[in-house]
Structures are given as structure tokens and as C-alpha cells.
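Exercise 7. Predict the structure of Lrp/AsnC family transcriptional regulator from Paracoccus yeei.
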Amino acid sequence: MDDLDRGIVAHLAQDARLSVAVLARRLKVARSTVQVRLERLETSGAIAGYTLRLGDSAREHRIRATCLLTIEPRSQVGILSRLRNMPEVERIHTTSGRVDLLLQLAAASTSQLDDVLDQIGGLTGVRSSESLIHLSTKLDRSS
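Solution. The predicted structure, encoded as C-alpha cells:
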């Protein structure tokens, strides 16, 4: 990626709805240049897709939590396939620390979150889990 590609990505990270014409104007290049670059970034996988980021007002009725899992050796594939089928599981990360998986969860209520945590803790291969409920967000640089 060169400076123009990074500029396109940076602008789209702030607002994925920007049109090609607006991107071209902001980056001071031809629309056709931006279009060709976008197609190349998409084809190469540098841009995997365009998405919607919910604002605080849309997320205020969601309870968010992080769940730390320690799992049995060689059970990751089975656990991951079951976690992917739980709509409350938004993200799954492997880690290099004392836990094996870090999950980001979102639920409509504390009782729904409690049920999901019970389901996760009961999965075959899960040794232990620890959950942390998110209270407020002080900084969010994700794009």
C-alpha cells in the first residue's frame, strides 16, 4: 500500500459511506484513480468489506462483556465452531497470556448475558471462564 491507498483506507475508516467522488476530491486525484485503487484494495483483501458502526445511542441498551476462556488442549476447533453459532458472541481472539480465548459479548439483558455465559462455561473443552462486564467506554479507536 502506498500513501494514496493509506489515504483511501483512512477516509473510509472514518466514514465508509463516502462516495468515490468525495474521496477523489479530498485526496486530489481523479475519480477513476480512486475507483481502480478501491477495486485493487478489495481484490487484494486489504479492504475486506464495508460495515456499520453503531453509535452510543444504539448500543446503550446492550450489555457488553469480555469473557476469558481457558480450554483443554486440542479442543479449540470444536469450541470455536460452537461459539460462532452464538449470536451474542461478537468477536473471538486467541491470546498468548494465561487464557486461551478472549470473547467479546453483547446481550440485551443481564439475564440473557447470564444464560450465554452459562452456555459458554458448559461447552465441552472449557476448563474455566472469567467474565468482565463493560461499564462505560472511555476510548474507542476501532474502525
